Amino acid sequence: MTEQYDIVIAGAGHNSLITAAYLGKAGYSCLLLEARHVIGGDTMTEELTLPGFQHDTCSTTHALFMQSPIWTNQELPLAEYGLEYIKADPVSHVVFPDGTYITQWMDIDRTCQEIAKFSRRDAEAYRKMITDWRSVSPIFNKMRYTPAGWDASLSGLLADHPQGAMWMRRQALSAWDIIDAAFEDWHVKSWMMWFAEGTLQPGERPGTGTLAYSFVAGRQRNGWAIPKGGSGSLPNALRRIIESQGGNILTNQRVERLILEQGRCAGVETASGEQFRARRAVVSTIHVKHLVNMAPAEAWGEAFLYGVETYKAGRTLFVAHYATTEPPRFLTGDGTLELVAAGVAQTAERQLNVGNDFHRGIASLDQPVLLILTPSVKDDTRAPAGKHMIKVMGQQPYSLREGPQRWDEIKEEIAASNLAELRKYAPNLTGDKILASEIRSPLDLERYNSHNWHGSCHGGDMDPSQSETLRPVPGYAQHRMPIPGLYQTGATTHPGGSVTGGPGRNAALVLLKDLGRDLNEVIHAY
Q1: Which domain-ending residue is among 225, 252, 268?
Q2: 292 near 308, Cβ under 8 Å?
Q3: What is the pTM (predicted TM-score) of this model?
């Protein structure tokens, strides 16, 4: 059976859905083919443990997405189609090995009071960093939602900013360079590093300087923003928009081959042998490591294949999901705290050594740096009445010295170690409070979603060789692939991973231009 649409899109993660929604708004018929039984990719919410416990399989917070023009300008009417965000406050509670802590509040004065427990100078330095970032964040945000190399360069945009030269230096430094220079107390340095590495980029690596500002400032502005009903609320709202435009989404349809005719991508073929043809273009969100196997090598060219061959996964996550009768209750001087987001930061030195574990292929049990998320504290749709769902995350290497299959033997031990660390600060979470669990190693994350190549939920590393005009491959950063008629979106394209919607919007912008249309005209057409 062969079916034809204007646009055929391989994959139904949030970026693919965003691309389809913009194209549908422009009047093009779109078909999305999803390999799994549900849509959303890494923005999914599922009953992983017990019925009624709605766990986010990967992403949980959408703080970056809330700063996108997609949401702030409602370019896609997501609020109208049911998407709602909860700004959790207190924002976060991060503990240290000596039993102290910093609680972040949306009220910056309260946050600074927490920091001042350790250093008044550091509290003022934090306030200044947030102020400085807010003055320049619109420029970096514009870069995120502009195809790489498409418009003015970062240096060009910063040229008119009074601190432009300073920000050019800052973005080239490492996050640790900036944090170490700005703060004096080790607790505050550790706290800031915990935030800076929130997107899984090593804070000591040159080029991560803006991460010293952006992640913590985003939480300071929007809280630990969670979509009501779970991360899957975003793709579900996008589905409703696409279907209202006449688009179609088919699940359990794994794309395995690109159909090439006269050197052009004319459609795709699924695992069942069914073909779906596109009158205008094919869009892929398949990881580039897999995409190159779907057409002959000569169709890609030597340079593109080399770029894919040298593509790196970067840091990877280890995740444990729990269904419980209580949330973690963190001990404070005033009693206990129950909140959506908490962390175990350890020391800055320990965080800087996480990279050594990755390089050596060691699954570390000692002093885990953790993020603990309990959305059910603020969203009672996530678990049965009086119950909670908890996600405990740490960073662990996919490529162990014994090989990634070793994860099947040791993952329970790693999860138990992380849980023991959490209990030091939230002792109420004893074994009798845990009803069920689902443990996912980096290898399991790859098994769950093939886009999580080598366990990376962010589409691959974001080092300088895989960022902006070099992502995914030099010469092909503007979403057009070497095969005419084929476009790429998703986390392997600029601006990379996390829930930003940037790759989806940017791909739509490029494709619409190639079709002789303008995104701004499409947005304001109705």
Answers
A1: 225
A2: yes
A3: 0.94
